[in-house]
Amino acid sequence: MKIPEGIKFDDQGLMVAIAQDVENGEVLMQAFMNEEALRLSLETGVAHYYSRSRKKLWKKGESSGHVQQVKEVRLDCDLDAVILKVHQIGGACHTGFRSCFYRVVNPDGSLREEGQKVFNPGQVYKK
Amino acid sequence: MKIPEGIKFDDQGLMVAIAQDVENGEVLMQAFMNEEALRLSLETGVAHYYSRSRKKLWKKGESSGHVQQVKEVRLDCDLDAVILKVHQIGGACHTGFRSCFYRVVNPDGSLREEGQKVFNPGQVYKK
């Protein structure tokens, strides 16, 4: 898949990326992409992101094997945010949950865990 | 709903916010929130955002009437991104589409529109 024209990256050269489960619509994670990450995601069909903390390109699942196969790519009205509809191998979250959004806010501001735990991070990241 | 502890805002005081249709899981829009926008969204039950271009707090639907009633709030593993599961009145996008993510990338990099048009922006924003 080729990179569309007119995509807007912010003053740090990044755009917001959202990975959504193509099968059930669950939002799996939110990350950022620079132009190279977007290009690689489209060209290879496997999600790549840009890590703001590590300041480097990052192939999702590189160490865990939990890659995201890109099935559809959507852009928003401003062309500055992208949704990847993906087939997620394993889980998206490094904590072992399928989605990074596994915490729900209670009325009193406390958080409860509500999500599907799909792997044991101690085993997956032991290398 | 009270604001949870430990939320991380970036160096501009913002976090990524994703509005998702509570009924069918469609991602409606992506925007940013500062602490006040998050607090107001939780306290009032109606989505508020922070506009980076206009540099001001923004109640979604203020001029259009297309407000978002917050039904559930989820945080990600890093506590720096939030999903609002909302009941969307009208459409989320100023173009008249229900979702801002109405453009799908074709294999050749061109874009096709694929979404539900729910209002005429010329009528809604004529005031």
Q: Biggest interface, which chains?
A: A-B, 40 and 40 residues
Secondary structure: number of strands of chain A: 8
- Could you name the CATH homologous superfamily of chain A? Phosphoribosyl-AMP cyclohydrolase
Average per-residue pLDDT of chain A, rounded, comes to 95
CATH class of chain A: Alpha Beta
> How much helical structure, as a percent, in the residues of chain A?
10-25%
Helix and strand sequence of chain A? EEHEEEEEEH
Q: What percent strand of chain A?
A: 25-35%
In spatial order, strands of the major sheet of chain A run 2-1-6-5
Cα-atom Rg of chain A, whole angstroms?
Answer: 15 Å
CATH architecture of chain A: Roll
Low-confidence blocks of residues of chain A: none
SSE layout:
Two copies of one chain form a homodimer.
Chain A: E1 15-21, E2 27-33, H1 35-44, E3 48-51, E4 56-59, E5 68-75, E6 81-88, E7 103-105, E8 111-113, H2 121-124
Parallel strand pairs in A: 1-6
Antiparallel strand pairs in A: 1-2, 3-4, 5-6, 7-8
Which labels suit this protein?
homodimer, 127 residues, mainly beta, Ubiquitin-like (UB roll), 4-stranded mixed beta sheet, two-stranded antiparallel ribbon, 2 helices, 8 strands
Commentary on this structure:
The structure is a homodimer of 127-residue chains. In chain A, a hairpin with a 5-residue loop joins strand 5 (68-75) and strand 6 (81-88). Chain A has a single domain, classed as Phosphoribosyl-AMP cyclohydrolase (Ubiquitin-like (UB roll), Roll), CATH 3.10.20.810. The mean pLDDT of chain A is 95. Chain A is built from two helices and eight strands; from the N terminus they run ββαββββββα. The relative contact order of chain A is 0.19. The radius of gyration of chain A is 15 Å and the shape is globular. Chain A is mostly beta strands and 127 residues long. Strand 7 of chain A pairs antiparallel with strand 5 (68-75) of chain B.
